[in-house]
Design a protein that fits this description.
Elements: H1 2-32, E1 34-40, H2 41-55, E2 62-68, H3 74-79, E3 85-90, H4 91-101, E4 105-113, E5 117-119, E6 134-138, H5 141-152, E7 158-159, E8 169-171, E9 177-181, H6 186-189, E10 195-198, H7 200-203, E11 213-216, E12 225-230, H8 237-246, H9 249-259, E13 264-265
Parallel strand pairs: 1-2, 1-3, 6-9, 6-10
Antiparallel strand pairs: 3-12, 4-12, 4-13, 5-10, 5-11, 7-8
Helix pairs in contact: 2-9
Length: 267
Amino acid sequence: MIRTHVLKAAAAGIAAILALSACGSSSSSEASSTIKVGALAVPAGDMVKHVQRELAAAEGLTVEYKEFSDYNTPNPAVSDGDIDANLFQNTTFLETYNKASGKNLVSVGKVYLPPMALYSNDIAELQDLPDGASIAIPNDPTNESRALKLLASKGLIEVTENPITLKDVTANPKNIQFTEIENASLPQALNDKDAAIVTLAFALPAGLSADKQLLVEGKDSAYYNVLAVKAEMKDDPRVLKLYKILTSQDMKDFLQEKYKGLVIPAS
């Protein structure tokens, strides 16, 4: 009788261990297919949410999305391990962050271009920009440089070969009055400036439409946004699957349908 009880107890114990093992295996499998991705709300956030809802399952991937509202926090979130990847920046911004922080985030590859544009509420054509016009531009080194290059491309100013700040403006024939402003506040600057240079991530939420653009970057821009991760994560299967989805025809179709050409996918 004692032996029977012992055998039954042993069998029950083995069954419990096997059940726990199965649960652990399932949880481990689910964790290994999960990737945490951070982005600003638009357009990258919309892209990540589309992957999360419509495209990830077919690749055996589970996407957890975290929304950010500024350019300063997504990179530290990857560096600290709060998220696995982010999608909001170009390689110049990424390199600037690495240099300033001593971190080593890397680009997995180009995903899309959110064109920077010169917007105005009151001026209809670039040629109508008056002498002494007031223009607000981004105040971070990457986007300020980008804005100056955009204006220089149409001869509104002249700049050094690699401009970073207003000190690199070598000629200003229209005597443009510049104001450096934090990116998220640039759309509001249109209320008291003749024009403002705004990146798409902040132009879209503010309702700035294409008919307010006086000047816009083209497909040849050097500022395509990239999927960024820590160096040791670059070849992680989850990262490679995510990048494959983000650059797929399905994603290109989504961008065209939602943004009507305002967002340019990487070719």
